[in-house]
């Protein structure tokens, strides 16, 4: 994380609020108060302070009948808290490769990089059971800054798995080169050794992507 921003934010409760909003996209004060076991007014004051400092803004979520619910979400400034390995220089290098070696060169380079990553993960993850592979893979991705979470359900001998990543350290490359969506899905399929569905579903301005498996035989 960006150490300067962390120093600016200060108290751990404020940092917890930012981390929760990163994972959930948007939350109401009462939701955060329940999650953190804090008073409503205590959370509200933290949110007001963070909004004043430019880390949060609000939006109204229509809920059918009744008044819309006011949710807090992160601003672009707050996104600087979270790690990223891609930046303008990386994109410029890929563009330079394209200019030098032709339009297909960046894609070939990205293919090679993702193949290397898949082999790295496969060497690290050698469990025979799918659930164990998914758990280990989630831990690795989380350690790399993807803010990954695993959920799973079993029913009638079938297993459904979902790995949700709440942050992408390579989002800048992902947006510039959409082929990365396919490469990420194929990487998951090679590591988990089964078909995977990839779906982005973040709130406006918030990245979230779920990789789903199943139902498959448990």
Quick overview of this protein structure:
The chain is of the alpha+beta class and 218 residues long. The protein has helices at residues 3-9, 12-24, 29-36, 40-52, 76-79, 88-101, 105-124, 130-146, 171-176, 179-192, and strands at 56-61, 69-74, 148-155, 158-165, 197-200, 209-217. The longest helix is centred in the middle third of the chain and has 20 residues, at 105-124.
Walkthrough of the structure:
By secondary structure, the protein is of the alpha+beta class. It has 2 domains: 3-79, Winged helix-like DNA-binding domain superfamily/Winged helix DNA-binding domain (Arc Repressor Mutant, subunit A); 88-217, Muramoyl-pentapeptide Carboxypeptidase, domain 2, CATH 3.30.1380. The protein has helices spanning 3-9, 12-24, 29-36, 40-52, 76-79, 88-101, 105-124, 130-146, 171-176, 179-192, and strands spanning 56-61, 69-74, 148-155, 158-165, 197-200, 209-217. Helix 3 crosses helix 4 and helix 7 runs parallel beside helix 10. The longest helix has 20 residues, at 105-124. It starts with a helix and ends with a strand. Residues 1-6 have low confidence and may be disordered.
């Amino acid at each position: 994380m960006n150490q300067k921003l962390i120093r600016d934010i200060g108290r751990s409760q404020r940092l917890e609020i930012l981390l929760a909003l990163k994972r959930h996209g948007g939350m109401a004060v009462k939701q955060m108060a329940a999650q953190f076991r804090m008073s409503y007014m205590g959370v509200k004051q933290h949110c007001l302070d963070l909004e004043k400092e430019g880390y949060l803004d609000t939006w109204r979520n229509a809920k059918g009948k009744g008044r819309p619910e006011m949710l807090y979400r992160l601003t672009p400034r707050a996104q600087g808290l979270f790690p990223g390995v891609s930046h303008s220089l990386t994109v410029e290098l890929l563009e330079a490769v394209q200019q030098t070696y032709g339009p297909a060169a960046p894609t070939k380079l990205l293919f090679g990089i993702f193949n290397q990553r898949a082999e790295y993960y496969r060497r690290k993850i050698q469990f025979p059971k799918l659930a164990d592979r998914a758990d280990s893979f989630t831990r690795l991705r989380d350690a790399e800054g993807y803010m990954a979470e695993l959920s799973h359900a079993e029913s009638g001998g079938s297993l459904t798995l979902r790995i949700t990543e709440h942050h992408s350290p390579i989002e800048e490359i992902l947006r510039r080169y959409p082929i990365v969506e396919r490469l990420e899905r194929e990487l998951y399929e090679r590591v988990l050794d089964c078909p995977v569905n990839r779906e982005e579903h973040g709130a406006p301005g918030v990245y979230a992507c779920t990789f789903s498996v199943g139902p498959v035989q448990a």
